[in-house]
Design a protein that fits this description.
With 446 residues, this protein is of the alpha+beta class. It folds into three domains: 9-81, Uridine Diphospho-n-acetylenolpyruvylglucosamine Reductase, domain 2 (2-Layer Sandwich); 88-202, 2-Layer Sandwich (Uridine Diphospho-n-acetylenolpyruvylglucosamine Reductase, domain 3); 211-396, 3-Layer(aba) Sandwich (Vanillyl-alcohol Oxidase, Chain A, domain 3). The chain is built from 15 helices and 16 strands. Strand 15 (354-360) and strand 16 form a beta hairpin. The two termini are 29 Å apart.
Length: 446
């Protein structure tokens, strides 16, 4: 890799050690041969061509926030980190952002806002997760119930293929039916088919001011029933769920006056303008009250609304203070949401483990957080057994093992149960066609 600038190729063992694991902290992570931190597509191509000529596996890493082991290191692989690929251009005429993959989601949002525009996808980790990782996993977030996920905003990509060629897919045009929809093939492909080096994103006009409605419930079942009552009538701008464990964990961390006695908390928002917004807020309040909310609070103050949104975003790091986490990401069709939440409670009881449930409830995407002590072998086994049972439950309810985090390495054993043998065969055929040597992100999905 002598064609790369000095200092771009890193072999220092101490630095490599910091790149072995992503946020999922996979204990089976290997040790990479080298770390490469390119700044351009051409430099990525150089690295890939060297790996091809030496039959060396390639792991692509963004900000390292993957919760499914999507960028876990493999022994002897070259790790290509996109963290230094940080160019960004906002085009107000076409309402697009052209971003290299290393920009944080929050940075793209801020740049769009500075130009009077809005980039909607907002994972809870938006301040620390990268656009490249968002595209690789088709990340979602809190406002997806109304505004959609990452793929709904990707208009174009530049991708370095497994043989080192760089291809451009799509562009700034809003409509494009030329050829197969290859852009969408790469969104959510988790580094299995190519390395994304540039993304063209669709931007929207600024979001209208939102009104926030908060409801506290005595049980998670009542709260999940209230979710169905809301979503059967409207599509709110946000509808988030927290259980008692996460409420208390967040209160311990933020001290914001959350009701520690509540069994569940719902945070909803409406950004519909004028009378339509008033009607949506009334509907949400009525749905909460009808389904047993002990207290319902509504505010159009942006600071108050953001405080409750921040509480929901803080749930995972707050619960993590209680122990090591196995993070789930299962989703179901909305009518099955109460069955999923009740079923997770049964799994927690059957396995004698703590499972906290938070959720993007408005679109049926839940995050059961399994808390365990990794030094307790029996509890470790019970936690991992519960992990698999939750995915089995989601599949049995017609749902998915991952709504937005990706399959990665941690969930691939359950993927065939969800999609079936024919889809697995088709996935393998696509992988073999684009990466015949199997060098890109080995161990992910397949």
């Amino acid at each position: 890799m002598s064609q790369l600038p000095d200092g771009m190729v890193v072999t220092d063992p101490d630095i490599l050690a910091a790149y072995r694991q992503d946020r999922a902290a996979d204990p089976d992570a290997g040790t990479p041969l080298a770390l490469i931190r390119p700044t351009s597509t051409a430099e990525v191509q150089t690295a890939v061509r060297w790996c091809v000529s030496h039959a060396t596996p390639i792991i692509t890493r963004g900000a390292g926030t993957s919760l499914s082991g999507g960028s876990t290191a493999v022994d002897g692989a070259v790790m290509i980190s996109t963290e230094k690929m940080r160019e960004l251009t906002i085009d107000t005429a076409t309402r697009t952002a052209v971003s290299q993959p290393g920009l944080f989601n929050s940075e793209v949002k801020a740049a769009a806002s500075a130009n009077g525009l809005w980039y909607p996808p907002d994972p809870s980790s938006f301040e620390i997760c990268s656009i490249g990782g968002n595209v690789a996993t088709n990340a979602g977030g809190l406002c997806c119930v109304k505004y959609g996920v990452t793929t709904d905003y990707v208009l174009g990509l530049e991708v370095v293929l497994a043989d080192g060629r760089a291809v451009r897919l799509g562009g700034k045009q809003l409509k494009d039916s030329a050829g197969l929809p290859l852009t969408k093939l790469f969104v959510g492909s988790e580094g299995l088919l190519g390395i994304i080096t540039e993304v063209t994103l669709r931007l929207l006009p600024p979001q209208a001011p939102a009104c926030t409605v908060v409801g506290t419930f005595s049980s998670v079942h009542d709260a999940s029933a209230a979710v169905l009552a809301v979503t059967s009538e409207i599509r709110p701008a946000m509808l988030e769920f927290m259980d008692s464990v996460s409420i208390n964990a967040v209160e311990d961390m933020l001290r914001m006056g959350l009701d520690r006695e509540a069994g569940a908390l719902l945070v909803a928002q409406s950004d519909a303008p004028g009378p339509a917004g008033v009607a949506e807020v009334e509907l949400i309040q009525n749905a909460f009250e009808t389904h047993g909310a002990a207290e319902v609070f509504a505010t159009d103050d942006p600071a108050e609304g953001e405080a409750f949104t921040a509480a929901r975003r803080a749930a995972i790091p707050a619960v993590e203070k209680l122990g090591t986490l196995l993070l789930e990401d299962v989703g179901v069709p909305l009518p099955s949401l109460p069955s999923l939440i009740d079923g997770v409670a049964d799994i927690a009881s059957d396995n004698s483990v703590m499972i906290s449930v938070i959720a993007h409830a408005g679109d049926g995407n839940t995050h059961p957080l399994i808390v365990f002590d990794p030094d307790d072998a029996d509890e470790h086994d019970r936690a991992h057994r519960a992990f698999g049972q939750i995915m089995d439950l989601a599949i049995s309810l017609g749902g998915t093992i991952t709504g937005e985090h990706g399959v990665g390495r941690l969930k691939k054993a359950w993927l065939p149960d969800q999609v079936g043998p024919d889809v697995m065969e088709l996935t393998t055929l696509i992988k073999q066609a684009l990466d015949p040597q199997g060098l890109l992100n080995p161990g992910v999905i397949l």
